[in-house]
Structure formats: C-alpha cells, structure tokens
C-alpha cells in the first residue's frame, strides 16, 4: 500500500499457482499479472495511521478518523 496525498494506492500481482503450459486451456476465469487500484481518502481521516492486514485472501484496510478535523465554512457574499 502507498499513500500519495489523499489517495490510497493498492498494487500487487496475481500469482499463477500452477504451471498451465502442459494443459489445453479453452477459457481461464482467474487473472494473472499485475494490478493497481487508487482510492481517494476523504478529508478528515488520519493517513499516517493506516493499518492493513491480509488474511485468508482478504485485504482489510483501516483508516482512523481525525476527530479534531473541522470542515472550513466559507460565507458567500
């Protein structure tokens, strides 16, 4: 995981677990190769305290809220 400003970038590679060169494959449902996904983190979250865990094929990302964050109000003239 990488954080670039307010964007969380998840990248990695799908691994091919077996040698398929000996098989005559007609259709393959699972992907292999690299992937990248960017997700915008809304303001009001602590990007310095991100916690990530990968378990049983599931990636869980926790981003705590910044309880001190107050949106700025702008008066219209």
From TrEMBL:
UniProt keyword DNA-binding present: no
PROSITE patterns: SHSP
CDD domains: ACD_sHsps-like
Metal-binding is among the record's keywords: no
SHSP domain ranges (all copies): 1-77
InterPro entries per the UniProt record, alphabetical: A-crystallin/Hsp20_dom (IPR002068), HSP20-like_chaperone (IPR008978), Small_HSP (IPR031107)
Gene3D superfamilies membership: 2.60.40.790
UniProt xrefs under Pfam families: HSP20
Keyword vocabulary terms for this entry: Stress response
Top-level taxon of origin: Eukaryota
Annotated family: Belongs to the small heat shock protein (HSP20) family.
PANTHER family per the UniProt record, alphabetical: HEAT-SHOCK PROTEIN 20 FAMILY MEMBER (PTHR11527)
The protein's name in its UniProt record: 11193_t:CDS:1
């Amino acid at each position: 995981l990488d954080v670039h400003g307010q964007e969380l970038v998840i990248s990695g590679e799908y691994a091919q677990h077996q040698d398929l060169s000996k098989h005559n494959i007609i259709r393959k449902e699972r992907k292999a190769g690299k992937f990248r996904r960017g997700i915008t983190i809304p303001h009001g979250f602590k990007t310095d305290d991100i916690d990530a865990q990968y378990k049983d094929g599931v990636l869980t990302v926790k981003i705590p809220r910044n309880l001190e964050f107050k949106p700025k109000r702008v008066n219209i003239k």
